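question for whoever is on the cluster today: can someone run the full assembly for these? two chains, 582 residues total. i dont have access anymore since they changed the login thing
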Amino acid sequence: MAETPLQNPGTLNLTAKAKTIYAVLMFVGVITFLILLMNNPERAWHAYLTSFFYFVTLAVGGLFFTAIHHMTSAGWSVNIRRFSEAMTSFLPVAFVGAIALLLAGDYLYSWLNPEVVANDPLLQHKTPYLNRGFFWIRTIGFFGIWLYFAKILVGRSLEVDKTGDDKTTLSLLKPSVIFVLLFALSYSLFSVDTLMALEPHWFSTIFGVYCFGGMFQSTMAFMILTILYFMKNGQLKGYVDENHLHDLGKYMFAFTVFWAYIAFSQYMLIWYANLPEETIFFMPRSHGSWMWVSIGLLVGKFVIPFFALLPQWAKRTPVHLAAVSVWILIMQYVDMYWLVYPNLNHDEVVFNFSEVLIFAGFWGAFLFTTTRFLSKNSIVPTKDGRIHESMHHHVVY
Amino acid sequence: MDKLFTTLENLLRPKGKKGLAGIWEDDHKMVEAARKTREMGVKKFDAISPFPLHGIDEAMGIPRSWIPWVTFIFGLTGCAFGTWFTWWTSAVDWPLIIAGKPFWSLPAFVPIIFECTILFAALSSVGVMIGLCRMPTIDPHTIDPDLTCHKFAIFVPEDEPGFDQAKLESLFKENGATDVRQTEF
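^ ran it for u. tokens below:
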């Protein structure tokens, strides 16, 4: 078969219009946050934590996807790797966000208050782990790990763009393996520290895995949307086609099921044992208006995407896949909201435009860093030694 | 007893079709030849390979399998069955109080319902696939023993519309077949 010479995919053309939109989003988000901070600081920080965790998850999810790509010496995903790498560019911003969260910890975490701890034997028992100093060290340590490995994995990948040296690509295997091991620990504990510790009496050993399920699901959704954008404007012609989408769609489907599996495992064991320390998490979430959010989460984050992604055509039809991806990104927010907000109000759902606008502000920052990365670097690592495998990627089933 | 074995044997022994087979040592050439055979107008023919070939479905014009529908429908059936069965056993036929939970406690039964879904879907898919492949068979016709190792073949039955001995022979040879033979499969 004769091959037509491929055009260089180039970089993202980051228009002034797009920049303005991101700036407006960020501005609106910051203003809303500040207004809410003056009127109801507790609620402001809960809204902040919801969005913050959401985007840290996306950024670390991008890094994790990059790492498993290198770890398995994958060939098929070379042409889409730059998009997962782009997501990691939010990490430095997230680090600044984490410092803000640490400073505002008293609005969120009761165990930071010595008076509360003094009257609570259970919390005293947990002080070796749940204390201010160690909380700071851990959080900064986690970001240190992520930033360091992002610098190695993404930095060397960009080097290959210039040199085309296969040795550099191969040298990423080892740090990827180390990262994946550290990732399991750091991301689990990060979710324990920031989300589970909102209710310090509660514990669930599967909680980190639960967050990881949603992470992979939403990371795939965001990557698919980015890829569809570039496919639509023609820059990926010859590089990425519906076969790559099919595989990403399968990932998204698999982790939809995985998330539900883990979520149910967590629920069933707690329901069965019926211990007060554990049911304390599900009590508010299964009463009043929160019950509807819980049911909505089950239907919206599992049942709908499950059936929507089940047929083969669903994973190969761009419009359909885009719709499901947007839906999953929304449901991921609902999930984060469901984890955080009952801590603010046990009895009723608290939600209005301020949560939406703060979320939009974070989107502005996230899209700004990701698109800036893609506008500076080639959107396909064209000099990667395994690129031919990705060019002829063919999915049968 | 002997009669039973004869009946069984007749049932399981495949009735071969006479036809023309081309044999290749290069899978890419074979896939190309399969494409050309289809373009020549032959609709139903067989390709034999020791391992799954990329692009052969598309080259032979094989439509997407309908087995996924069997999987899906039996999965739903299994789900419904599991739900009904756990309800009937635990809440109707033999109600037991366990840990003070209601007789009909969905969370406890979800694993069973889930397993029933998987069991029904998996067994039905495998069963239908075995049936479709006409397995098991006794003493099936073989074109060439090397086809299980390093060779590839295309077999066109004689009674297939569009079958043209001379044309097929030259098509196979032009596309790199190492051997073309009259055979039964």
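summary bc i know u wont read the tokens: DSSP finds 17 helices and no strands in chain A. The radius of gyration of chain A is 21 Å.
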